[in-house]
Task: structure prediction
Amino acid sequence: MKQIFLVLKREYLTRVKKKSFLLATILTPLIMPAIILTIVYFATQEKESRSDKILVLDKSGIFIDSFDVTSFDFEYINGDLEAAKDDLLEKGAFGLLYIPTIDMSDASVINFSGFELYSKTNPSVNSIERIEKIIRNKLEDVKLENSGLDAQVIENLKVRVDLDSFNISDTGEAKESNSKLSFAIGYGTGFLIYMFIFIYGSQIMQSVLDEKTSRIVEVIVSSVKPFQLMMGKVLGVGAVGFTQLLIWFVLIGGLSTVGLSIMAGNSDAIMEAASQQVPGEAIEQLTDQQKTVAEIQGMIASVPVVKILLCFLFFFLGAYFLYGAMYAAIGSAVDSIQDAQQFMFPIIIPIIAAIMAMFFVLDDPNGGLAVTLSLIPFTSPIIMMARIPFGVPDWQLALSMVLLVAGFMGTIWMAGRVYRVGILMYGVKVNWKTIAKWFTMKV
Result:
């Protein structure tokens, strides 16, 4: 254990003392929101600066003044279609909307075709849907007018429903839930594990490769067993990632608390509103900012934050140990990063499969696919974290944790069998058959 701790300490201190680590750890929680805001700002500016004019050639005569919306600047033109296409090029407009002659005399017709949109570049799906909605609404208004029915009566028949969802515990206590927030937390935590596996797994493999190619490892293994060296590296780099996560949690939590406190003002009233302990009249007396803070705090209270954080740390470490050991084994088996590519594919397949399946799991967190993948050690860290915000039976969570522990212990043992031989092999053409022989080789 002493040798493992010495290697761990060296790997940990070597990385955390680097300026790049400190800058990345401290600035990332600040830089990421800035990047998102910058992208949104320039996307908005670009949208405002480019031409969003659409020429409308209406042969039906029905859609006069129907396209009075702010998303596009519509200009009505006359003439034939070919001349309208020339106008599109000359005026530098975004597009040309052609509306054919429409017969509205038959009220039973529900399918209308012949509408055409011309543009020099492919319009976005959202743009097409907005134009289709305008056309559809206008045709519905015309059919309603021709039917002789009172439009106001039809409008009054429409209703709006707000559905509040609650989770009921085994004791019968009901607690408000928030599916959108659960979706965001599940996706965010799963993606973080996915990202950290690649980042820190690659660091382990690169560290092993560097020591092997520089022959430093020959000196190290004279006083440290290969398995102890591998475990020290895995634990040391894992401790770096754990430290970075903790700093991020503290920074993000502190900044969020300060920001909400500045917006809050009357914190007592907000806490009462967030916990829904005051009547609606009292909530209405809060300012818009205070209502926003109360909503945010109410959303946070609707999810088991402590449970999610503890489970995230467990599955993060479990995934890291499981895949980190395999990355170390690959680094010991090859002589260059190029040779490692052929062995990387089987490792990344479960990770990619998990991140792709996560979208289906978030849609049905208690389905058969979600339950199965959340129990398999190679996919459970990502999939289980996607499920936990929606509520997971305790026996499934416990079983997933036990299988993950068994999985990374087995993986570490197998990786150690490869590492002890491969770390001292030079100039050997390694393939899967060669690696299989190393399991039974005595050293």
Remarks:
- The radius of gyration is 30 Å.
- Residues 269-283 have pLDDT under 50 and may be disordered.
- Residues 178-440 form one domain.
- The longest helix spans residues 226-264.
